[in-house]
Amino acid sequence: MIPSAGTSLSSLGQRLSVVLGAEGVVDDLRRYYGVGLPSSMAAFTGSRFEHLAGGGDRPESADRFTAEDLIAVQTLSVTVPASVALDLLESRLGARLSGLLHVIPTDIDMVDAEADILAEGSPADQAWHLLCAQHGVNWVIAGKLLARKRPRLLPVYDKVVRCALGRPRPSFWLVLHAALREDDAALHRRLLELRQVAGVPETVSALRVCDVAVWMNHRALGHACP
Length: 226
Hints:
The protein is built from ten helices and no strands. The chain has helices spanning about 10-20, 25-35, 65-75, 80-90, 90-100, 125-130, 140-150, 160-165, 170-200, 205-220.
């Protein structure tokens, strides 16, 4: 169930409610993940983002970046510069991020997390800023790397999603967190419902369902996103 028209929602909540209630949202999810497609049609490469090599949050590598993580973000059309990739895999940057990842939970959805897990100065926020400080790594790449490691907690947020949903303050993470909790978590429950109806695997997080729904909808509308 999505919030009713009379429900008081934040601006972001209202935008998401429209997208998640759109007529073609289930078909969009099926198309992206290749559910029920004829053999002549391929799923989007991004459908492998969370599943490649068992996922970025699998226990044996949840707290360190691997080569598979670097390939996974390429399925979302970004590339980590080679020098940064080597530093992530073999040197000081990887060690520093491993320390931060170690204290970022893997077993909680954003909707159930306390806001301080996502707030300014949190380990997740520190990891994002540390990545953004690397030459050739922008906010999009940093966000996708962290979404790969914590897919239930941290969302993909790129230029298409920003074009569709705006630049909420104080941060996209915190405003999305609040929107997912509004009206007894109605939007989160809608995301789980869409995942089930579309036949998307349960290993795809609610956050990722949200990202794909927004991305596919905005792409179909033909918006030019700088």
